[in-house]
């Protein structure tokens, strides 16, 4: 049992659990869809393409059938936020707007923070400092002028937490020293560089500061843009990776945008921070950006839990188009409806909004969305001179290599007509050429698959993964325990049956723990029972509770479950008696042999009844 005595009263934990719907909490992190009695989504704890993460609203629990994580709302928050049980209770209470008891509020204010919490608090304090310098000090005026020139007012600055790090090597260092921040924490934060003599100096100097948030909206890093150009320093400088910041799985502005993303099922992926900010001010609040590097599979997986539709709107110049092409390759196997917006004249979103206004920008995002294939054809067309026959033919061949990957015949016909018009070639001849290209493509794909199979057979030394199949007794035991936890009458019936026990010792332990849990004060349900158990016992409880059951189960079926369990128990005793008879005979112990023979005969009579 998880011990929290002296920290959070059990009555308060129970209040938080009873007043919180796990679906509301999980939906902040996972896009859930109703399927039968449960809700399903992509598991937030491991990468997958087919949803195996389930939430049962009536029991207030979750479970992943692939990675076997499961529990109640507190366990979900503990795992996804990597925090302790007491911290999870307080976070859920805050989510549900449940006021803390006075003594608990005092404990919370004075409690020792974990290292990760200290780091997050440090970053939050530094963000407030940088914003204050930008807005309230003379030294911040050049940076404020720069942002105002880019049409960012104070509201936008506060909305995105923008700030300024002056061109001083010890401003932040001295600020944190006055707050008695330890040197060890400052080193771990990544906010400082070290000279050869060990002296710490501010990492960010003369930079406009963009705070980076985690998916819960906590500042975990910074990206600083040089205020004045320098040949010796990069234009943008990011915080180094720390225990709370790994850039591969962070999307800029995701925490603020995810509510709108979930409501609209759509996310707009931009290339830079200023594009996100400009789009936001133009009314597009569901915009996000990668961390100044190529898009990663971790970022896409984070996004897939909130969005169904992904619109990529990078810069319209050649590097931007190449970045779009790279992103499309990565997104290809993901469960997104993909679109691409190419702004006119090679402009980026920030430039386009300034030139044409918010309404025109929104019209571009809504009315000029290209499919990935249409984007690739448009990109290819820009690489050839159509006034030269050889280049027109080269374009046609390149376009056909793009179209052979399309499975829909309707799409094939649509894009073939576009290519024919673009290159001014006969459509019938183009379709004949396309048929030949498809045959060649399919031959190559078959050859690749054969080679992959051969390579896998030759190099794979790992044993095959076998599906675990429960036998009749195991199914009976799990179903019976599930029913007993939900039905007090059946539970008492099993307790009163002196010779009843589950054959699986782990299930028997769960049943005994359930009986102990029933002796505690308060309401008794599966979500509360999960907190009563040790962490290693919780996964089995979730598997039992998530096990599919018929809508109606008769008393006869329940008796069958009990009979199957008891029969398996007698079978096990019978095998043991047979071994004991054999051992006694080998040892020449006639009395023991007779004793076990009588046991054997009695067991056989019971099994035959």
Your description of this structure?
This protein has 609 residues and is of the alpha+beta class. It has 5 domains: 10-110, DNA Primase, Chain A; 115-242, DNA primase, catalytic core, N-terminal domain (DNA primase DNAg catalytic core, N-terminal domain, Alpha-Beta Complex); 254-370, 3-Layer(aba) Sandwich (Dna Topoisomerase Vi A Subunit, Chain: A, domain 2), CATH 3.40.1360.10; 379-454, no CATH class; 472-608. It is 55% helix and 11% strand. The protein has 27 helices and 16 strands. Strands 1-2-3-4-5 form a 5-stranded antiparallel β-sheet, sandwiched between helices. A 5-stranded mixed β-sheet has the order 13-12-14-15-16. It has a 4-stranded antiparallel β-sheet with strand order 6-9-10-11, with helices on one face. Strand 9 and strand 10 form a beta hairpin. It starts with 9 loop residues before the first helix and ends with a helix. This is DNA primase. It holds the Pfam family DNAG_N. Belongs to the DnaG primase family.
């Amino acid at each position: 049992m998880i011990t929290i005595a002296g920290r959070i009263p059990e009555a308060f934990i129970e209040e938080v659990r009873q007043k919180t719907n796990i679906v509301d909490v999980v939906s902040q992190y996972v896009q859930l869809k109703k399927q039968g009695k449960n809700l399903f989504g992509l598991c937030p704890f491991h990468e997958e393409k087919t949803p195996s993460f389930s939430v049962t609203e009536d029991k207030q629990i979750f479970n992943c059938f692939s990675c076997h994580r499961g529990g109640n709302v507190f366990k979900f928050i503990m795992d996804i936020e990597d925090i302790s049980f007491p911290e999870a209770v307080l976070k859920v209470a805050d989510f549900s707007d449940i006021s803390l008891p006075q003594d608990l509020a005092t404990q919370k204010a004075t409690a020792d923070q974990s290292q990760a919490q200290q780091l997050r608090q440090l970053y939050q304090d530094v963000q407030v400092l940088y914003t204050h310098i930008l807005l309230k000090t003379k030294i911040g005026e050049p940076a404020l002028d720069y942002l105002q020139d880019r049409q960012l007012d104070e509201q936008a600055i506060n909305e995105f937490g923008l700030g300024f790090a002056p061109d001083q090597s010890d401003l932040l260092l001295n600020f944190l020293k006055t707050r008695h921040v330890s040197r060890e924490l400052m080193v771990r934060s990544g906010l400082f560089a070290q000279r050869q003599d060990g002296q710490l100096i501010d990492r960010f100097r003369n930079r406009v500061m963009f705070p980076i948030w985690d998916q819960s909206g906590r500042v975990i890093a910074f990206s600083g843009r040089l205020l004045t150009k320098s040949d010796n320093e990069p234009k943008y400088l990011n915080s180094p990776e720390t225990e709370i910041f790994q850039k591969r799985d962070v999307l800029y502005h995701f925490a603020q945008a995810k509510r709108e993303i979930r409501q609209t099922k759509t996310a707009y992926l931009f290339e830079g921070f200023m594009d996100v900010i400009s789009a936001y001010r133009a009314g597009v609040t569901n915009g996000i950006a990668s961390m100044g590097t190529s898009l990663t599979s971790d970022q896409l997986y984070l996004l897939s839990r909130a969005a169904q539709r992904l619109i990529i709107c990078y810069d319209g110049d050649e590097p931007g188009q190449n970045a779009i092409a790279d992103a499309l390759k990565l997104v290809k196997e993901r469960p997104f409806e993909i679109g691409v917006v190419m702004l006119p004249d090679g402009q980026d979103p920030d430039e386009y909004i300034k030139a044409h206004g918010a309404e025109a920008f929104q019209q571009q995002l809504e009315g000029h969305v290209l499919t990935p294939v249409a984007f690739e054809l448009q990109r290819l067309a820009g690489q050839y001179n159509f006034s030269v026959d050889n280049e027109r033919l080269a374009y046609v061949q390149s376009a056909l290599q793009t179209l052979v990957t399309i499975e829909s015949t309707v799409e094939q016909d649509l894009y073939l007509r576009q290519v024919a018009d673009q290159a001014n070639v006969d459509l019938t001849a183009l379709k004949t050429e396309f048929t030949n290209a498809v045959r060649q493509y399919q031959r190559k794909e078959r050859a690749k698959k054969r080679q992959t199979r051969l390579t896998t057979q030759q190099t794979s030394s790992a044993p095959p993964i076998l599906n675990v199949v429960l036998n009749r007794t195991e199914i009976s035991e799990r179903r019976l325990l599930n029913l007993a936890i939900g039905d007090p009458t059946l539970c008492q019936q099993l307790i009163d049956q002196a010779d009843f026990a589950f054959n699986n010792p782990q299930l028997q332990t769960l049943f005994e723990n359930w009986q102990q849990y029933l002796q505690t004060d308060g309401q008794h349900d599966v979500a509360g029972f999960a907190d009563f158990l040790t962490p290693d016992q919780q996964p089995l409880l979730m598997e039992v509770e998530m096990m599919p059951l018929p809508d109606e189960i008769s008393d006869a079926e329940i008796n069958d479950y009990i009979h199957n369990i008891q029969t398996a128990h007698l079978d096990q005793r019978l095998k043991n008696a047979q071994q004991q008879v054999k051992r006694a005979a080998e040892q020449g112990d006639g009395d023991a042999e007779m004793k076990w023979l009588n046991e054997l005969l009695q067991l056989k009579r019971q099994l035959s009844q």
